[in-house]
## 1
Amino acid sequence: MMIHEITPKAGKNKKSKRLGRGIGSGKGKTSGRGTKGAGSRSGWSGSIRAGREGGQTPWFRRIPKRGFSNFNFRVEYAAINVSDLQGRFNNGDVVDPAALVKAGLISNTRTPVKILASGELSKKLTVKAAAFSKIAQEKITKAGGTAEVVK
């Protein structure tokens, strides 16, 4: 096989649709946009969005809004079980967010970590986390380690 015998990949260079070039082209007159409505106008993409209902009052404005939502103030923790610590750390290790990232248990150190009680722990570990469940804290201290709350 020679270099001049190699053909380009099929479908790599696709011809663009030529709009508005007469009725014989199949894409003349309205250029495939249909007649009337927001979709036929130039700049139409700004007016058509999810939840748009034309002239009707939008659903979100129709429903009553009452009460309090904690959505903006909640704290989401990366949950780590005691059994995960048992399998990935050695006796006497310090377990902090940086060590958890290195072990592949969490993706970054910005997310606060909460240690949960699922599983058993027999290794003496110094665990530093944002929060602990009560039973997880008991399991860590029972194994001879310490549970430190850090922000």
## 2
Amino acid sequence: MQPDAPMPSDAELIARVRAGHVNDYEPLITRHREQVFAIVARHVPGAQVAELAHEVFVRAFLSLRTYRAEKPFAHWLSRIAVRACCDFWRQQARHPETPASTLDADHQDWLETAAQGLAREKFAEEIAQREAAEVLDWALAQVGGAERMVLTMLHRDGHSVSDIAGLLGWTQTRVKVTAFRARHKLRGLLARQLKTTR
């Protein structure tokens, strides 16, 4: 029995796909599936993850001829995944805003408690809890797609400004300006919601 042949590298598989051997794209999907699902799962609702991850691999396949191998394939694929998430939120933004009345009773209770003047320290503790996190998710959904992505990548995923700029294909200045504007919008949105719950 012969030992198994070593798995071909990403570059070898890409060369084969470009040469017309489309079945060699499947090992690339298998190899990078977890990476793509992890990125997508951090940025879109759970019910949309599988569909959007599939779309990422379709986009990558259709764009494979543009891959220049200046950076690893995994990095190139990450950029496609991040941009697909931005596109998802851009499309969501075209729909009317979700009214606050669609928040469930737990979320409404949390907003009411915050509105009644919790001490700053208590508020900081509460915001770490599930209800606060879900209210924040609701508020983030009201912000533009690119702004939501930047805030999530900065504050939840812990990416640096330079990492985000690389993944989105932006300048660092654009990332900083987008984050500043997004935080401003988020503060205004939450402040207005707190007033309506009083």
